[in-house]
Design brief:
A hairpin with a 2-residue loop joins strand 1 and strand 2. With 339 residues, this protein is of the alpha/beta class. The strands form 2 sheets. Strands 3-4-5-6-7-8-9-10 form an 8-stranded parallel beta barrel, surrounded by 5 helices. Strands 1-2 form a two-stranded antiparallel sheet. The chain contains 15 helices and 10 strands. The protein is globular, with a radius of gyration of 19 Å. The longest helix has 20 residues. Helix 1 crosses helix 9, helix 2 packs across helix 14 and helix 9 runs antiparallel to helix 10. It starts with a helix and ends in a 6-residue tail after the last helix.
Length: 339
């Protein structure tokens, strides 16, 4: 358990220092250009950015995505995230709860998060591969209960596990286990990648298995191949180097996934979301929400007030994009003309 905590702390330090970002590949959002509307015929202050997610109202289609969990540093960050999201009415997804489950302690992922964010969706998090290592419905229910979570996300990270020394590399027969968990959980089950993207084929198989929330988490943000390389010596860096920019760009993943989403399912665009214009682009391509992780981390490390200020700027940028496309609400933004 101490080894896992140490690894999580190293991950947080590397990402916080900006050493894990994609360099040669981007999200693809810069190729999405709205047609400017010089006569929007609407009142800027009347624009409605609100939406609903997991039965709760959000002030904007924005979620602070999973970052980390289970260490003292992560605990402080998660409390800041909960406080900021609670104040602004935004969703939050916690990092892996593995330490909290295996270590028999909350590790900063306990009821204090719900106390700070009583009215917004909170999403729990476990590694999907842990379903092959003894975790099942009981542990998943415990992960939900310790947060009073509205849903549980399973993260898929085969590239990271393949590069990480001692990584969990047996991903065989995971889909039947995911399907069984979807049937057993009292809350919706979601699945996310961690930076290499979900393909439409994988999305279809997951929905067939009962998954109702898909987070593409594509290329353009954090590269976990880079992060793991930063933790290792020369040999690990050589092995990881060809995979630094491996995966599906976020905009491409959203565009491929949106047309196949079932009614009642939710598509989240994360992976390199930089600002509110990227949020608007993600919604236009078919996402229901956009998630920001590394982009929000520097502010989250400063505290709840700094994070709330950052997220408020992201929402203001989204509102400007809606104003300049003549979009009164998110439904109109989904149909805004592209140049």
């Amino acid at each position: 358990m101490n080894e896992i905590k140490g690894r999580k702390s190293e991950h947080l330090a590397i990402v916080g220092a900006g050493k894990g970002i994609q360099l040669s590949r981007a999200t693809g959002f810069d190729n999405v250009h709205f047609l400017h509307n010089a006569l929007p015929e609407l009142d800027y202050d009347a624009i409605d950015t609100a939406t609903r997610f997991l039965g709760r109202r959000l002030s904007a289609p924005l979620m602070v995505s999973a970052m980390t969990g289970g260490t003292p540093g992560a605990a402080r960050i998660n409390l800041s995230i909960a406080e900021a999201c609670g104040a602004l009415g935004l969703a939050l997804a916690v990092g892996s709860q593995r330490i909290a489950i295996e270590g028999r302690g909350a590790g900063g992922l306990g009821p204090e998060l719900r106390a700070r964010a009583p009215d917004v969706p909170i999403l729990g998090n476990l590694g999907a591969v842990q379903l092959r290592r003894g975790m099942g419905a009981d542990e998943a229910r415990r992960a939900v209960e310790m947060l009073e979570a509205d849903a549980l996300m399973l993260h898929l990270n085969p590239l990271q596990e393949a590069i990480q020394p001692g990584g969990d590399r047996d991903f065989s027969d995971l889909l039947p286990r995911i399907e069984a968990l979807a049937r057993a959980l009292p809350v919706p089950l979601g699945v996310k990648e961690v930076g290499a993207g979900l393909s439409a084929d994988v999305g279809r198989r997951l929905m067939d298995a009962g998954v109702t929330i898909l987070d593409v988490a594509g290329v353009g943000g954090t590269s976990w191949a880079r992060v793991e390389a930063e933790r290792g010596g020369d040999r690990l860096r050589r092995i990881a180097a060809p995979f630094f920019d491996w995966g599906i760009p976020t905009a491409e993943a959203v565009s491929a996934m949106a047309p196949i989403m079932w009614p009642g399912t939710v598509l989240i665009a994360s992976g390199g979301i930089r600002h509110g214009l990227d949020v608007a682009r993600a919604i236009r391509l078919g996402a229901d929400l956009a998630g920001q992780a590394a982009g929000a981390l520097p502010a989250a490390q400063q505290g709840a007030e700094a994070l709330a200020a950052h997220l408020s700027e992201v929402i203001e940028q989204l509102r400007i994009a809606m104003f300049c496309t003549g979009s009164r609400d998110l439904e109109e933004l989904r149909h805004a003309p592209l140049a």
